[in-house]
């Protein structure tokens, strides 16, 4: 079956094709909430703090507010689109319906970069904590990466119910750890002395102010804007929730609730951690600007070094929660593009017993590890995890920003092209919220270019984009499958054309 207007060809797969790619339903509202919050929560344990080096405390807070506004526009948009198009494809599905096969593929490709590389960033931070706890030589870091990938791939593969139960438990534990930290930190905080201990040196780089009491915005407005990519880490991956649509018991009812509850939870947590972590004696914003284990440093400031192993294990929980849940998202994202033929269809085969996309998850993990290893050996072990983490973070954020722009455009186009489709939830921010998301995402991308580690990362992303687009142009677009996402898009495309034909003349 050809679609000349899009330059693609379809085939209708038989029942056995989808039987080999079956999923099962389990998730309710709280499972979805845990999936969204758990995916992001590691960003409150590590990563976000690198923004102190570019914006100071005030710059980090302002950037966090701007990025929160962007994510509100995005999450309200996907809270409307996901129950209206309740398919595992999520971002790809939204863009496919709004912009055709090429728009769907490019959006899915951007999201693929995010979900393959974000676990790699998180495992870098996990390794920093493990090295600190056990006193391991950083030269063994690649071994730690492999151990964590294998362990959490197994948890994700051997049963959907197990995966969601683990997600709920470790998300609740992670939030409990953060609340415990907030309660512990409030009596010890000295905001002016420590959170405001960054100044600008003669060479324009951050310098530590021994007495604190520095400016809120040491690098001005440009510092705020340069900090936007790091503030993204406070919310990155909340948008993965729609990937669970075909594993949700009632996606039309539960998906919007899970997304909105998750976003509210994350905004509260983000403000508390940005306020308290740098305000502790001996920690400070200047130190956190290069720290890989900021929450552990915070616990040490309150409780000392005596219980470093216990404190380190406690601080690991959030990183583990996000690593586990984003591996889940990675598998579903690759699975959906493969099931529809955009990626090789073998990647979407699910486990015969557990009905989980094990081939997609293993393949995504291998690619993520390969990128990490390549950067590790290219830069040398002596470069340290902070550079590798920063390079990977830039790559993940780069993919995410393009994905957000495409999803916001999809929202606007769906409002205009398909006003009549059932929308169990409507975004209160509407099209203006989506436009604001696009503007902030574009500005974030522009300032990301200024990060010296950006070019190291974006080159890899560009190569992956080039290879994937070439595959789709030559092979993939001629082998598309009428998956649920594709059938929905084609069906509504035909209805829209029919409606135009019967419109009365002016």
Summary, kept brief:
This protein is an all-alpha fold and 506 residues long. It is 67% helix and 3% strand. Strand 1 and strand 2 (8-11) form a beta hairpin.
Name the features:
506 residues; mainly alpha; Amino acid/polyamine transporter I; 3-stranded mixed β-sheet; two-stranded antiparallel sheet; 67% helix; globular
Structural write-up:
By secondary structure, this protein is mainly α. The chain has one domain: Amino acid/polyamine transporter I (Up-down Bundle), CATH 1.20.1740. Helix content is 67%, strand content 3%. The chain contains 17 helices and five strands. It has helices spanning 15-19, 29-40, 52-84, 91-134, 141-157, 160-185, 191-195, 220-231, 251-276, 284-288, 294-303, 308-339, 358-379, 385-417, 430-448, 454-474, 484-502, and strands at 2-3, 8-11, 198-200, 206-208, 480-481. Strands 1-2-5 form a three-stranded mixed β-sheet, with no helix packed on it. The protein has a two-stranded antiparallel ribbon with strand order 3-4. Helix 4 (91-134) packs across helix 5 (141-157) and helix 5 (141-157) crosses helix 12 (308-339). The protein is globular. The mean pLDDT is 86.
Broad CATH class: Mainly Alpha
Distance between the termini: 36 Å
How many domains make up the coordinates? Answer: 1
- Sheet with most strands: strand arrangement: 1-2-5
CATH overall fold name? Amino acid/polyamine transporter I
What's the CATH superfamily, by name?
A: Amino acid/polyamine transporter I
**Helix-strand sequence:** EEHHHHHHHEEHHHHHHHHHEH
Name the poorly predicted regions. Answer: none
